[in-house]
């Protein structure tokens, strides 16, 4: 990317993050979103950041130009889309099919040290 596309791509990334985490260091009742909770910190370390834009920045098609907008913008993370089983990076890419899978880990394993893990 170069020129105005580089500016709008970076700008859209930062604008969405500023809107979702306006006070990331605030310890008040509603600081906004600044990073995943402890159970999901791998997003923070695996992708180089845990803000909503960072969680999609490494995905194919993260920076795209939509037909109705003549500039490149970044798609960003949506908990609602993820919970519905859709591509968590929104807006969705036109003509693309999202596919994901998750293993069901309901096995019981007994170790010879006498401990059972479920």
Can you describe what's shown?
- This protein is α+β, with helices and mostly antiparallel strands.
- It is built from four helices and six strands, in the order αααβββαβββ.
- The protein is about 25% helix and about 10% strand.
- The termini are far apart.
- About 15% of the residues are buried.
Number of helices: 4
Largest sheet composition: 2 strands, antiparallel
Note the run of SSEs as H and E. HHHEEEHEEE
Q: Which blocks of ≥5 consecutive residues have pLDDT under 50?
A: none
Residue-averaged pLDDT: 82
| Percentage of residues in helical conformation | 25-40%
What is the terminal separation in angstroms?
48 Å
Radius of gyration computed on alpha carbons: 18 Å
What's the arrangement of secondary structure elements?
Elements: H1 3-20, H2 42-46, H3 54-57, E1 63-65, E2 72-74, E3 76-77, H4 79-83, E4 89-90, E5 109-110, E6 116-117
């Amino acid at each position: 990317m170069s020129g105005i596309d580089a500016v709008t791509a970076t700008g859209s990334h930062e604008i969405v993050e500023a809107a979702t985490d306006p006070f990331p260091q605030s310890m008040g009742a509603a600081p906004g979103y600044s990073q995943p909770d402890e159970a999901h910190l791998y997003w923070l370390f695996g992708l180089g950041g845990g803000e909503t834009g960072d969680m999609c920045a490494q995905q194919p098609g993260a920076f795209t130009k939509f037909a109705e907008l003549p500039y490149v913008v970044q798609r960003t993370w949506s908990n609602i889309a993820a919970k519905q089983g859709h591509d968590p990076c929104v807006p969705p890419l036109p003509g693309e099919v999202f596919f994901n899978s998750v293993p069901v880990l309901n096995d019981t394993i007994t170790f010879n040290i006498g401990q059972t893990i479920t």
